[in-house]
Design brief:
This protein has 13 helices and 22 strands. It has helices at about 15-25, 45-50, 55-75, 90-115, 170-175, 190-200, 220-235, 325-340, 370-375, 390-395, 425-435, 440-445, 455-465; strands spanning about 5-10, 30-35, 115-120, 120-125, 130-135, 140-150, 155, 170, 185, 205-210, 240, 245-250, 255-260, 265-270, 270-275, 280, 315, 355, 360-365, 380-385, 400-410, 415-420. Strands 1, 2, 3, 4, 5, 6 and 17 form a seven-stranded mixed β-sheet that branches. α1 runs parallel beside α8 and α3 (about 55-75) runs parallel beside α6. The longest helix is centred in the first third of the chain and has 26 residues, at about 90-115. This is Dihydrolipoyl dehydrogenase. It comes from Pseudomonas laurentiana. Its main location: cytoplasm. One of its GO terms (biological process) is 2-oxoglutarate metabolic process.
């Protein structure tokens, strides 16, 4: 007998598992299909983010930063240590345990909320039927009133540097190194490339980042990207802009990479090479030819503002649809879709999705950049505050970077908050909350911020928008 559900979710990443839990909480009979397995062959929920993305990379980033502090930054606090060593297999093992705990936690949440977990590859057929192919090759077809496609993304492969997961690796392979490579190459100066490059640089690798674009962190505010490049270069990352990789040749345990830049063809040799040029949607074998769902030439599923596809009752969320490939964006799309299935008029504010790069210092922003606003012809007032003037940052010996608040010159409404520095992600989230309620810079300036905190930097930057900062000299208005 065919199983029938109110909602069937294909994919158990941050979009899919959140949608499945929410659907069950709203009283809908829900199933979630996932094919990903861990090293032991067991079903591993949580998608790329929990298993080989956001979470494990943050574990390594934190471990490597603690190593750096113990080795190079404790002296200023009066703390003397002996020789500091890093046990890389232990660090990677800790990361694996965190992943195991979190993926197991999702399974527990499924049970607690009554979500039926199905292991296998899900494929949408015509008439909102879903075909599930199990690991042993057996096939089952289930029926759904509503289907949510949340199959996620995978790293982009490039012909000049084919991944072998030994010498040339993708982001997944870069999380599994058992020793620090002496010479590490990274293709791509995006979020993933900079984070993974930072991890291994702190542990002693000589890191070279090859970026095809001439602009560093194009999506970030120009002031932030300039500061980031200066800081990361000082930390030891050799970022080569305008460097287009044209080929690679593996010779035993090393790889020779060929690239072109303003000076012509160059060659450089690495012990390991990470390919981090972005991600592409996983839509291969997701849709039967007669499913009715349409995809574009890059493999993204066409959806409207509410993530509905061209087939009534079929939705798509997360990395398989337009917009930023971010876990939190996928999760909120999942919530919105399920609320709409239930008949509620839910919607998402795509203008206020925060972006974060977990280097040290952190880099984060929400809203628009100054260059984007100027290109649109919007007159703005800008306030900045450096962490070098923050008592809390001084106490923590973490004074690099600044907070930047951008407000409309006519209405004073805050249009962007950009931070590079300690706890940047948390400060930007404060800005996002305020902006969601239509805050003005004056509103933020009139609020009471506790002292001493890093949050005061946001307060002072908001005051500086209108020339009222207290703890830093204000720019004279022309």
């Amino acid at each position: 007998m065919t199983q029938k559900f109110d909602v069937v979710v294909i994919g158990a990443g941050p979009g899919g598992y959140v949608a499945a839990i929410k659907a069950a909480q709203l009283g809908l009979k829900t199933a979630c299909i996932e094919k990903y397995t861990d090293g032991e062959g067991k079903l591993a929920l949580g998608g790329t983010c929990l298993n080989v993305g956001c979470i494990p990379s943050k574990a390594l980033l934190d471990s490597s930063w603690k190593y750096h502090e113990a080795k190079d930054a404790f002296g200023v606090h009066g703390i003397t240590t002996g020789e500091v060593k890093m046990d890389v297999p232990a660090m990677v093992g800790r990361k694996a345990n965190i992943v195991k705990n979190l993926t197991g936690g999702v399974a527990t949440l499924f049970k607690a909320n009554g979500v039926t977990s199905i292991q296998g590859h899900g494929k949408l057929l015509a008439g909102k039927k879903v075909e599930v192919t199990k690991a042993d090759g057996t096939v089952e077809v289930i029926e759904a009133e509503n289907v949510i496609l949340a199959s996620g993304s995978r790293p982009i492969d490039i012909p000049p540097a084919p991944v072998d997961q030994n010498v040339i690796v993708d982001s997944t392979g870069a999380l599994e190194f058992q020793a620090v490579p002496k010479r590490l190459g990274v293709i791509g100066a995006g979020v993933i490339g900079l984070e993974l490059g930072s991890v291994w640089s702190r542990l002693g690798a000589q890191v070279t980042v090859l970026e095809a674009l001439d602009t560093f962190l194009m999506a970030a505010d120009t002031a932030v990207s300039k500061e980031a490049l200066k800081t990361l270069t000082k930390q030891g990352l050799d970022v080569k802009l305008g460097a287009r990789v044209t080929g690679s040749k593996v010779n035993g345990d090393e790889v020779e990479v060929t690239y072109t830049d303003a000076n012509g063809e160059q060659k450089i040799t690495f012990d390991k090479l990470i390919v981090a040029v972005g991600r592409r949607p996983v839509t291969t074998d997701l849709l039967a030819a007669d499913s009715g769902v349409t995809i574009d030439e890059r493999g993204f599923i066409f959806v409207d503002d509410y993530c509905a596809t061209s087939v009534p009752g079929v939705y798509a969320i997360g990395d398989v649809v337009r917009g930023m490939m971010l876990a939190h964006k996928a999760s909120e799309e999942g919530i919105m879709v399920v609320e709409r299935i239930k008949g509620h008029k839910a919607q998402m504010n795509y203008d206020l999705i925060p972006s974060v790069i977990y280097t040290h210092p952190e880099i984060a922003w929400v809203g628009k950049t100054e260059q984007a606003l100027k290109a649109e012809g919007v007159e703005v007032n800008v306030g900045t505050f450096p962490f070098a003037a923050s008592g809390r940052a001084m106490a923590a010996n973490d004074t690099g970077g600044f907070v930047k608040v951008i407000a409309d010159a006519k209405t004073d409404r805050v249009l962007g908050v950009h931070v590079i520095g300690p706890s940047a992600a948390e400060l930007v989230q404060q800005g996002a909350i305020a902006m969601e309620f239509g805050t003005s810079a004056e509103d933020l300036g009139m609020m009471v911020f506790s002292h001493p905190t890093l949050s005061e930097a946001l307060h002072e930057a908001a005051l500086a928008v209108n020339g009222g900062a207290i703890h830093v000299a204000n720019r004279k208005k022309r």
